[in-house]
TrEMBL record:
Protein name (Swiss-Prot/TrEMBL): Probable GTP-binding protein EngB
High-level lineage: Bacteria, Pseudomonadati, Pseudomonadota, Alphaproteobacteria, Rhodospirillales
GO cellular component: cytosol
Single GO BP term: division septum assembly
SUPFAM superfamilies in alphabetical order: P-loop containing nucleoside triphosphate hydrolases (SSF52540)
Stated family: Belongs to the TRAFAC class TrmE-Era-EngA-EngB-Septin-like GTPase superfamily. EngB GTPase family.
Domain of life of the source: Bacteria
Gene: engB
Keyword Membrane assigned: no
Alphabetical list of InterPro entries matching this protein: G_ENGB_dom, GTP-bd, GTP-bd_ribosome_bio_YsxC, P-loop_NTPase
Length: 223
């Protein structure tokens, strides 16, 4: 028997979803790209970064969240995004699209440069509230994902796993993946305990992710 939620819990959830809707309905502007550590900008607003293996769907998810088809460039070619791209959302939150990792065909020089840039960004970034770590729900956690999680745990950077491409999975297999991922996260000191299930193509989980990110944004300005 499923336990019923309380009216207070329902009201709180509805308020959170509405806050997310309002935030992501506001203008989202591209600010700057950084190709090396010297180019990393400094902002007063809180930041949320999106990380994941190459071709996991980071750009597609950012576009789905903001309701823009071309805000973040998408590509069928893994490893194409080589810069840190910064966007300002409604003057309340900075969204950061990080370069993909785990692309085997990239040169060792490129991989070293990307790794140095991303690590330089993640370390000591006081305004970074959370890293959304995107994992393809069809494949689960790979060795490269676990390596990134190790680094985030060591740096005490809060992160939350976002399972992508859920529309490509059957319900039973997806449920098992959520359970397996949750067990892995329970052993991670910097990991958010809940993973979110999303599909940029179908819109699954987008409202919930918007709500979670809105809770990390700066308070709205008084009217």
């Amino acid at each position: 028997m499923t336990e019923k939620s309380s009216p207070a819990a329902d009201a709180a959830e509805a308020a959170a979803l509405e806050a997310g809707r309002l935030l992501f309905s506001r203008e989202c502007l591209f600010l700057v790209s950084a190709a090396d550590e010297k180019q990393l900008p400094s902002f007063a607003l809180s930041e949320v970064a999106f990380a994941g293996r190459s071709n996991v769907g980071k750009s597609s998810l950012v576009n789905a969240l903001t309701g823009r088809k071309t805000l973040a460039r998408t590509s069928n070619t893994p490893g194409r995004t080589r810069l840190l791209n910064f966007f300002e959302l409604g003057e309340r939150l900075i969204l950061v699209d990080l370069p993909g990792y785990g692309y085997a065909r990239a040169s060792k020089t490129d991989i070293a440069q990307w790794s140095k840039l991303t690590r330089g960004y993640l370390k000591g970034r006081a305004q970074l509230r959370r890293v959304c770590l995107l994992i393809d729900s069809r494949h689960g956690l790979k060795a490269s994902d676990k390596q990134v999680m190790d680094e985030l745990d060591l740096a005490a950077v809060s992160y939350q796993v976002i399972l992508t491409k859920a529309d490509k999975m059957k319900a039973g297999a997806l449920a098992r993946m959520v359970e397996e991922t949750g067990k892995a996260l329970a052993k991670r000191p910097a990991a958010h305990p809940d993973c979110l299930v999303t599909s940029a193509e179908k819109g699954t989980g987008i409202d919930s992710l918007r709500a979670a990110l809105a809770a990390l944004a700066e308070p709205p300005a008084a009217e």
